[in-house]
Amino acid sequence: MTKELLEIQDLLGRLDAAEKAQVLQWVARDLGDAYRGIESAPDVCGGEARLVRSRIPVWLLVQSRRLGATEADLLRAYPTLRAEDLANAWSYARSHRDEIEVDIRANESA
């Protein structure tokens, strides 16, 4: 085991369950497989989480649903979307509530 892994193992031993869960979320996000169908890049949509193959940010879908849009409405409004895309967006939004709220507030005041 490398020196860095030993240090990480020691640090993990000192974290509580919630902190370990946060670390796990960071690692999963870093690996890129945690939220299939969702990506973010600094040069696209200002780095906001969005559906792959599109410029549709997750926060926009979440806010649309809050304002009464159904999944059927969203699929009609965005013909390139698939039901799987919406499922991925909802999953991402559940795990990144604070991020989505910040994005919604930032875009409402823009």
Give the strand line-up of the largest sheet. Answer: 1-2
What is Rg?
Answer: 17 Å
Number of helices: 6
- In percent terms, what proportion of residues is strand? under 5%
Number of strands: 2
Fourth CATH level, the homologous superfamily of the largest domain: Winged helix-like DNA-binding domain superfamily/Winged helix DNA-binding domain
CATH class categorisation of the largest domain = Mainly Alpha
Number of domains: 2
How would you describe this structure to a colleague?
By secondary structure, the chain is mainly alpha-helical. The protein has two domains: 1-34; 36-110, Orthogonal Bundle (Arc Repressor Mutant, subunit A), CATH 1.10.10. It has six helices and two strands; from the N terminus they run ααββαααα. It has helices at residues 3-13, 17-31, 58-66, 71-77, 83-95, 97-108, and strands at 38-39, 50-51. Strands 1-2 form a two-stranded antiparallel ribbon.
Summary keywords:
110 residues; mainly alpha; Arc Repressor Mutant, subunit A; 2 domains; two-stranded antiparallel sheet; 6 helices; 61% helix
SSE layout:
Layout: H1 3-13, H2 17-31, E1 38-39, E2 50-51, H3 58-66, H4 71-77, H5 83-95, H6 97-108
Antiparallel strand pairs: 1-2
How do you describe this structure in short?
This protein is mostly helical. Helix content is 61%, strand content 4%. The chain has a two-stranded antiparallel ribbon.
